[in-house]
Amino acid sequence: MTNGPLPTQFQIDQLLMARLTQADLADLNSTFEQRTPDELIRWAKSTFGDRVAAISAMQRSGNILCHMLHRILPEMKVLFVDTGVLFEETLETRDRMIKEYGLDVVTLSPKQTMAEQTAELGILYLSVDGQKQCCDLRKTQPLLEVAGEYDALLGSLRRSDGGNRAACPILAVDPATNTVRVNPMVNISDDELNAYEKENNVIIHPLHAQGFPTIGCNRCTTPVMPEEPKRAGRWRHLGPWSVYCGINPTDLSADTATAIDLPQDLVDRILGRETDFMI
To answer: What is the pTM of this model?
Structure first.
């Protein structure tokens, strides 16, 4: 009788999975409140190794996160979702990040062009339910296609953005991608963001200087008047102004029962039960 092939490390890891809930991260989140973005980025790299990447839509906060990576971890992949209907300036900003910062930007795309999607499903973004479906198809699904390659994703959400982000945690579990979302910039104020941008001459999306506080797809983003909320230009034709695309899970839910499944040894490292890295 012959023995079968030995199990791969991935197969072994799958047998040793552990559940990690948002509540499990409470103590660590509290500890991390005093840490700098640089320290949190380094912690993420040390903890998750090659299975961590950043996400950037090439807006101001994402541009600054990219600059931070350029300074301390230029080898980390940056995931960028090209919905196929972005402003040309957004794509130009991405290209500058690659050329001038030397970043490894991985561009993700939806399965269908906007023309193909419209021919099949109609103009989705003209209704509230359709907008959610459109954002899912063109933003979220491309990210989910590669989610299995990562255990953690770094973002650039900040509490000073207000709305649902006012209580954004530093660490959040994301069941959709089965990753830990790491938000190293949550405590950066608008003044601190502006100061970092000026001190480091950060590459910034040019539409920010043309009346666009936030920038998404060209179909659903308009300039904002000075007296309006920052997000007034997003899906203006639908309202209310608090609408989010859904690619950031903490925009939609703060449920502490939310959970993901990761290898036991990784959960131990995250929670500090087994670690050789401290900040």
So the answer is: 0.87
